[in-house]
Amino acid sequence: MEIPVDSKSSPTSPKLLRRVSKQQPVTSHRFSPPENSKRCLQVPTFIICLICLNIWCAFLFIHSFHFCISSPKVDLYCISISTGKHPKLSTAIGPAVPDGAAGGEPEQNWLEKEKLVDLEQAPKGPESAQENMKNLSESPEVERTQESVELANRIEAQAPGMDRNQEPVEMGVREESNRLEGQWGTVAVQSYMSQLRTLAAKGAHVTGERGSCDGRGVYVYDLPSKFNRDLAAMCGDLLPWADLCKYFANEALGEKAEALGPRWYGSHQYFLEPIFHNRIQNHPCRVHDRDAARLFYVPFYGGLDVVRWHFRNVSTEVKDALGVELIRSVGGELRALALVNFFSNLDDFFIIIKNWILKCRWLEEQPSWRRNSGSDHIFVLGKISWDFRRYDNRHWGSNFLLLDQMQKSFKFLIERQPWERNDVGVPHPTHFHPHDDADITAWQLRLSAFPRRNLVGFAGAAREEESIRSALIEQCIAATPECRFLNCNDGGCMKTEVVVGLFMESEFCLQPPGDSPTRKSVFDSLVAGCIPVIFNPFTAYYQYPWHLPEDHQRWSVFIEEEEVRQGKVDVVERLRRVPAEEREEMRRYIVHQIMPGLVYGDATARFERFRDAFDIVVDNVMEKLVGGSAGE
What we know:
Residues 213-330, 361-569 form the Exostosin GT47 domain. This protein has 632 residues and is an alpha/beta fold.
C-alpha cells in the first residue's frame, strides 16, 4: 500500500523533480544571479591590473628625474623621460655626436678640438697648405689630441696655478689658439673643396654634347607618400605664420612673375627638394629596373620635415622619427619610446605610435642600398646642414645626417658642413627656371644690354647693432644715391620683381651673412648679372665647388667682415675704386660662364649647349660612380 505523503517526499519521485525544476528559475532569479557572480569573480583580476599599472607608473615617475653621469674617461650620459637620451634609444635614434667627440675637455666641442694644430704645422703658402692638409688628414687622431694637450699645457704655463675653468687667460695665448684653430680649419676646408672639385665633370657650365646613357641609369625610388607628398600636402601648416601652398604651384616653382618674363617664378628658398624631384623624374637616363641603375635618388623631403617641427613644442625623438624610419627598422625602440612619451606628451605618443604601426623598414631592406651601403645614393635637402646635425641636447633640427647609415651617401644641401667630404653645396633655387637653351641665351642678351644705374645695391634686414648688416646699412644710406638700400623689414623684399630689379640695376650687390653664412641673395644677384660683394668666405667660396669657380676674384669682391664691423673700411668707397673695365669683364664672366649653371630648369627642361645646376649635380655624381670611386 502506497503512502501519498512518502511518495511526495521521495527524492526519486518524478513529480517532485518536476516541481523543483519548475521553481528553479524563480529561485535563481531571486537569490543568485549568475552575472553578478561572474563580475565578482573578475574584480580581483581588474584590481591586479590596476596594481601593475600603478607600479609601472611609479617606475616611470622615478625615471622622470634627469640623471647625468660624466667622468674624464666616460662620455656624458643622461637619462630622462622627456627629450633627453633614453638608455635603450641611443642606438635607435643615432649618436648625438661622432665617436670620440666627448672627452676630458668639457669646454671644447668635438669640432673645435679637431681644428687645433701645432705651430710647426701651420701652412707657409697655398701649395704647402694643400700638402700640409693631406698629411694632417692622414695622421691618426691621437696626434691631434696630443697637439691639443700641448697647447693646453702652454696656456696653463702662462698662468700657473690658475683654474682651467676660470675665464682670464693671457690674450696673446688666446689669440694664438684662435689663430691656430683658424689656420687648421681653413686648410681643412680648402682641402675638402679641392677634392670635391676634382670630381667635377669637364665643361663646367657649357657643354657641346651629351653623353650616352649606357651604364649611367638613374633610378628614382617610389617612396611611401609620408616621406614626400604628404609633407607637401601640409603646405598650409608647415609654418605657423605663413601658408606655403602657393609655392607648390607650377610643379613647386611658385607663382609666375610675369613682369620679369615667361620663365620667372616666385620660388621659395627652401623648395629645392620638390624642384629636384620633379626634374629628375624626367631625366633622359632614368630607368625603372634597379639592376640597370648606376645612380639612386631618394626623394625624401627632409627639409620640409625639419621645417614643420621647427617652431612646435615636440620632443627631439618626434623630430627624428621620420628620417630614422626611412633608413632603418626601429619597431622595438619606437614601442619603448611610445611608452615613455605616453606619460610626458600625448601628442608625441600618438605620432610615434603611428610611425610604429606604419613603419616601412625602407632603405636598409633594399638590396640596391645594401649592395654598396648607400654610397651610390644621393639625397637632396632644401635646408642647411646644421638643421640635420643636432650634435648636443638642443631642440633645433634633426639628427638625420648623423645616422651611421647616412655617412657614405652624397648629400646635396643649400649650405654644406665644411668638414664633411660627402656634403656638397648646391645653389639655392632662384626665380629663373629656363626650359631650353633659347631661354638662357635670351636672358644673357637682356643682361648685357641692361643699364646699371646704381653702383651698389643691398636688399636685407637689419640685425643687432654690432652686426655687419647694421654697419652696411648705415654706410649705404650715407652714400645715397650711389648705394640703394631695399629694407626687407617693412616687406620691401616680398615681391620678386622688386628684388631682381634692384640687382639688375646695380653693379655690385652686398651679401653679408644672415642667420647662417650662406644667402639665397648671392645667387639672385649673380643671375641678375650683379657682382656679389662677399664678407665671409663661407658664404660662397667654401660652399659650392661644382657651381662657383675657385678663382673668386673673377666674379666677386671680398672685403673682410671684421674690418667693416669695426669701421675700418668704407665699402662704397672701396667699390668706387674698381675700374669700369674690370667691372665689365667680371659681369661678362658671370653672365656667360657662371649664370647658366646656377639656375634650375623647369620639370621638363632640356639643354644641349648649357648645363644647369641640376645637370651639374647628376653629371658629376655619375662621373664619380662610373670612375669607380664610390664609397671612398
